[in-house]
Amino acid sequence: MSFQPIRKILPQAIQSAGIQRQVTAARVMEEAQAALRRLWGEERAAYARPVSFKEGVLKIAALAPAASQELKLISVRLQNEVNRVLGSKIVHQIQTVMH
Predict the structure, then answer these.
(1) Does the N-terminal or the C-terminal CB of the chain have fewer CB atoms within 10 Å?
(2) DSSP 8-state symbol, 81
(3) How far is CA 18 from each of CA 6, 55, 92, rounded to the nearest angstrom?
(4) DSSP labels, 14-42
(5) Which residues neighbour 69 within 8 Å (Cβ) at sequence distance 6 or greater?
(6) Which ranges of 41-64 does DSSP label H, i.e. alpha helix?
(7) Half-sphere exposure for 64 (CA within 13 Å, toward CB)
(8) pLDDT at 8 > cutoff 80
(9) Cα separation of 48 and 35, whole Å?
């Protein structure tokens, strides 16, 4: 019996389990939060959090009006940063919602 690296096995297992969309959404949301921390710093990033990703649209909840305004201003930069880290153009649009 030979062992194979998990990075070789995992994509096929995800696909055969039918959970590719859920895994992609989780990766996008996790990377969006990390990108916000990189762009804004830990303290300011606490005022926004990704809430969903579906069909190329990433929704981010703003916890304050100022955060909502800033998210709108940096949405293209944030989108590009997330897509760059993930290695493909997965996020097509960012929507900001007040929470």
Answers:
(1) N
(2) H
(3) 18, 16, 23
(4) HHHHT-HHHHHHHHHHHHHHHHHHHHH-H
(5) none
(6) 42-45
(7) 7
(8) no
(9) 11
Could you give the CA distance from residue 73 to residue 66 in angstroms, rounded to a whole number? Answer: 11
What is the H or E stretch that residue 98 is in? strand 93-98
8-state DSSP, 64: S
Res 65: pLDDT: 95
| Alpha carbon distance 98, 82 (integer Å) | 21
pLDDT tens across 59-84, in order? 999 999 999 999 999 999 999 999 99
Rounded Cα distance between 91 and 80, Å, is 8
pTM, full prediction: 0.82
Under 8 Å between Cβ of 74 and 37:
no
SS3 73: helix
Please give the structure tokens belonging to residue 87: 């290695």
* DSSP-based helix, strand, coil % in the chain, nearest 5: 60, 20, 20
